[in-house]
Amino acid sequence: xxxxxxxxxxxxxxxxxxxxxxxxxxxxxxxxxxxxxxxxxxxxxxxxxxxxxxxxxxxxxxxxxxxxxxxxxxxxxxxxxxxxxxxxxxxxxxxxxxxxxxxxxxxxxxxxxxxxxxxxxxxxxxxxxxxxxxxxxxxxxxxxxxxxxxxxxxxxxxxxxxxxxxxxxxxxxxxxxxxxxxxxxxxxxxxxxxxxxxxxxxxxxxxxxxxxxxxxxxxxxxxxxxxxxxxxxxxxxxxxxxxxxxxxxxxxxxxxxxxxxxxxxxxxxxxxxxxxxxxxxxxxxxxxxxxxxxxxxxxxxxxxxxxxxxxxxx
Length: 314
Fold this sequence. Notes:
Helix content is 37%, strand content 17%. It has a six-stranded parallel sheet with strand order 3-2-1-4-5-6, with helices on both faces. A six-stranded parallel sheet has the order 9-8-7-10-11-12, with helices on both faces. The chain folds into two domains: 2-134, 3-Layer(aba) Sandwich (Rossmann fold), CATH 3.40.50.2000; 151-312, Glycogen Phosphorylase B (Rossmann fold, 3-Layer(aba) Sandwich), CATH 3.40.50. The longest helix has 15 residues, at 11-25. It is an alpha/beta fold and 314 residues long. It has twelve helices and twelve strands.
């Protein structure tokens, strides 16, 4: 039987879908494919047990590769992902009910729908859908990723704390001044921070923070290189972003800084903690914010102390 996983993006959400994939993969008779964005395919290249990775046809992938699946499972719940699920031609199309979809109309394209689940985290939601598909209880947070250390990564990131300045939402970005404060607070406690960035404006933010805390700035890294760097590092401090969730997936100490989103739904797990400023507007789920009170009132010293405490408790 051929089963197609549909989770196009974002990178953090693709990581959140891996435990559900791992549960489905326990059925060795299945041939499993996964359709994702160009960036997402870089994560899928490291995923053990995946038989086929497909580029989203809406980004230039082959439409023919989307056809011929017996079962399709949409873990995204958007109209575009639901449409691809439908166009796969699968007789059984699993997805979330309208009340669980980010875009409720997406549920029209499914003929097998998850009506509810226990818990709050998005991974619990994904595992519940995988349980519906497989007929077995899925609950393990398993991340079968092949990430090998390299001498370069160990030399560059070994023993250092990664401060990941990037985030897809403007409202999640802390800014150079706050990262500079966090870098100084960490150095006062004997840590060696290194600032990680992905886009050009993030590089400028990292360089601005570096001037304030005299911290090293990482060179540009590909997605696969980020995983290697995280594995080599002492741990990660990051907003709700791909790098934070990569750290959790690899079992590294991870401190998530939250404001517009909720750690109950999107938080790190395992050797991890979440921290947020005491403001009444959080979580607001806004992608952009003018005031950013959750950033302004965040204590850099508390961030550094929480990370130090996380390491002590391991």
